[in-house]
Design brief:
Elements lengths: L5 E6 L4 E6 L6 E6 L3 H11 L5 E6 L2 H6 L7 E5 L12 H11 L4 E6 L4 H9 L4 E4 L4 H16 L1 H8 L2
Length: 163
C-alpha cells in the first residue's frame, strides 16, 4: 500500500488552508452534526458504507466549529441543536459561523420541521440544501451530496458516483 502524499496549499481566492492528497487517495470529508446520539449514529452507519468517505460526527455545534480547520467538503447540520452548553449555538447560528470560516463548504440543513419558512431562512443564510428528517433522509442526503460534489470537485466525482 502506498502512503498518502500530502501537501499543504493555501488557496489565494479564499485564504483557506487545504490539504491535497494524491489523487488515488482522495477522500470526501463529511461532518455530521446532530444532538441526538442515536440519529447521529444511524447516519454515520449509512455514510460509512462508502469507504472513500471520511465521516466525523459531532453532538454539539461548538465541537464542529473547533474542527473546521479540517476543511470538510460537506457538513450535514441539524437545524435544532438543543444540548445545553454555555457556548451552544442553534443550527442557524452554526451555519453562519461555518460560512464565515469556510464560505465554499456545502452545508445541508437537516430538520424534522417541514417548514417553508425555516428552509428559506436556511438557504438565505448560505445552506446548500434543506432536507427533512423522515424514512428517506439518507437517500435524499446522498442525492444532494452527489449533486454538489459532482459540480464542485471533479477529482472527487468518481468517489461519490461509485456509492
Amino acid at each position: 500500500m502506498k502512503p498518502k502524499t500530502e501537501a499543504q496549499v493555501i488557496n489565494p481566492d479564499t485564504a483557506e488552508m487545504k490539504t491535497n492528497i494524491a489523487p488515488e487517495h482522495k477522500e470526501i470529508i463529511i461532518f455530521l452534526v446532530d444532538d441526538d446520539p442515536l440519529y447521529l449514529k444511524s447516519l454515520e452507519f449509512e455514510f460509512c458504507q462508502n469507504p472513500k468517505l471520511k465521516i466525523t460526527t459531532f453532538l454539539t455545534s461548538q465541537a464542529c466549529i473547533e474542527k473546521l480547520f479540517l476543511n470538510p467538503d460537506v457538513i450535514i447540520l441539524d437545524y435544532i441543536l438543543t444540548i445545553p452548553h454555555e457556548k451552544a449555538l442553534d443550527g442557524l447560528q452554526t451555519l453562519m459561523k461555518i460560512k464565515e470560516t469556510l464560505p465554499n463548504t456545502q452545508v445541508i440543513m437537516l430538520s424534522a420541521l417541514e417548514s417553508v419558512e425555516v428552509a428559506t431562512n436556511s438557504l438565505k443564510l448560505g445552506a446548500s440544501d434543506y432536507v427533512v428528517k423522515n424514512r428517506d433522509t439518507f437517500t435524499h442526503l446522498k442525492a444532494h451530496i452527489k449533486k454538489h460534489l459532482g459540480i464542485n470537485s471533479k477529482e472527487k466525482e468518481l468517489i461519490v458516483w461509485d456509492w
